[in-house]
Design brief:
It contains 7 helices and no strands. The protein is mostly helical.
Length: about 160
């Protein structure tokens, strides 16, 4: 018997948060993940692409398009839809629309190093934690949860020798 009882209103609340990101003025996530932070993370890793005026998919826009893919599901998660969101954003900002082709976006997304994405995620998580009221925290030390269902520790001779 599972001790976990999903709250049906939780997905509805997440949907509201997701919609607020998708419908914000300007670039989605700009308040949570400012372009300056993205630029700094890329500069720290010495990653530089799409710096010319006519190149659409610079690091900031590519990260935001990728995040919009992650937050959506099913067909709304496709590269075609991500490019459509970028196209609509460019039109809303009064800029020339980009091509509907996904090639440039997919190439730019492939240039997103995992190290930069990890750094951005960790930095944002730390920022959220710092802003959390103390009463939200479990009394005493911070609680760390680890899901070990994907870990494997075979009972090899070497592993057994460590535990003797």
């Amino acid at each position: 018997m599972s001790l976990y009882h999903p709250d049906p209103s939780l997905s509805r609340r997440f949907g509201l948060i997701q919609a607020s990101f998708s419908q914000s003025e300007g670039l989605p996530f700009a308040e949570v993940l400012p372009e300056e932070e993205i630029q700094q993370a890329f500069a720290n890793e010495e990653v530089d692409f799409a710096q010319e005026e006519d190149q659409i998919y610079n690091p900031g826009l590519t990260v935001w398009a990728f995040l919009s893919q992650i937050l959506h599901k099913d067909e709304q998660r496709s590269c075609v839809v991500a490019v459509s969101r970028v196209l609509v954003l460019l039109l809303a900002l009064g800029r020339e629309p980009c091509s509907k082709s996904t090639g440039a976006y997919c190439k730019a997304r492939a240039k997103l190093p995992e190290t930069v994405l990890e750094r951005l995620a960790v930095d944002e998580a730390r920022g959220c934690e710092k802003q959390s009221p103390q009463e939200w925290l479990w009394p005493g030390p911070h609680v760390k949860l680890i899901d070990g269902t994907t870990c494997s520790m075979p009972a090899t001779e070497q592993n057994q020798a460590v535990n003797r």
